Amino acid sequence: MPGYLCRLFAVAGLLLFGAPLALAAETNDAWPGLVQDIFNNRPMSDGSDVIGIEMPVRAEDAAIVPVTLRTKLSPDDSRQVVSITLVIDQNPAPMAAKFQIGPDAKVSEISTRVRVNNYTDVHAVAELSDGKLYMAKTYVKASGGCSAPAAKNADEAKARLGQMRYRQFAKAGEGPASGVREAQIMIGHPNNSGLQMDQVTHLYVPAFFVNELRLWQDDSLVLTMEGGISISEDPNIRFTYVSNGAKRFRAEAKDTEGHVYQREWKVDDSGI
C-alpha cells in the first residue's frame, strides 16, 4: 500500500506542478526577441492584406511540413513585395528562409517544406518597396522535426547530392512563353540539421544544408533563397512568376560546405 500511495502522489504531483510548466513552455512567446534578433526591432504592421501563410494546423510529419506564402496586394497597389522571411518561432534556428524576389518577376506564391520542432507560431514577414514590414502568422502543432532521422541513408543521399530537377507549369489559358507561370525546383541534398543522430554510430550528424539558391529566367533574376536548417531534406521550392519570354531557366545552389550546383534548362522542359 505505501508503494502504491507513493506512485499515486508522484503522478498527482506531475499533474499538479508539471501541467503549469508545460503550459508555460507552450505559451512562451519568443516573437519579441526574434523581432529584435532577425529584424533589428524594426516596426511591423498587420499584414493580413499583404501576405498570407498556409500550413496544416497539425502536421502529419514534422520533418516535411508544407508551407505556402502568398502575396495579397491588390493589382492597383503600386507597392511590390521585395522579400519574404519565414520564421518558425520555436525551432532551434528560427529563421527558416528568406526569399528575395526579382524586381521584374512579380512572384506571388512560394511553397516549400519545413521541419517543425515544437508546437509553435510561424510568422511570415513581407518587406515592401515602401521599406515597411508587414507580418502574418499561423500556429502549427508538430514536434521533433529538426531531430527526425533522415529518410535516405548516407550513401543514397551522397549519390543524389546536388542533383536538380525542374518543372514548369502553365497557368490555365496562358501560353508557355507569356503570362503567369508556375515552376518547381527540387535539389537532392540531405539538408542535415545538426540535431539528427546517426542510427548506427549514435553520434550527431553535422549540420550540412543548402544555404543559398538563385533562380533566373535568361539573365533576369526571379527568386533567391537564404536557407537554414529548417528547410526539409531534398529542398523543394515551387513558385509563381511572370514570364518575360525567356527561353532558358537557370538555377544555382550553394551549401554550407562550399559546394556549388548549377543547372540550366529550356523553359518548357522538365527533368533532371
TrEMBL record:
| Entry keywords, A to Z | Signal
Signal found in the keyword field? yes
Ig-like SoxY domain residues: 36-146
Q: Is Signal a UniProt keyword of this protein?
A: yes
Sulphur oxidation protein SoxZ domain boundaries: 178-265
Which SUPFAM superfamilies does the UniProt entry name for this protein?
Answer: E set domains (SSF81296)
What is the annotated signal peptide range for this record? Answer: 1-24
Query: Which InterPro entries does this chain map to?
Result: Fuse-rel_SoxYZ, Ig-like_fold, Ig_E-set, SoxY, SoxY_sf, SoxZ_dom
Q: Which residues form a coiled coil?
A: none
Q: Pfam families annotated for this entry?
A: SoxY (PF13501), SoxZ (PF08770)
Q: What is this protein called?
A: Quinoprotein dehydrogenase-associated SoxYZ-like carrier
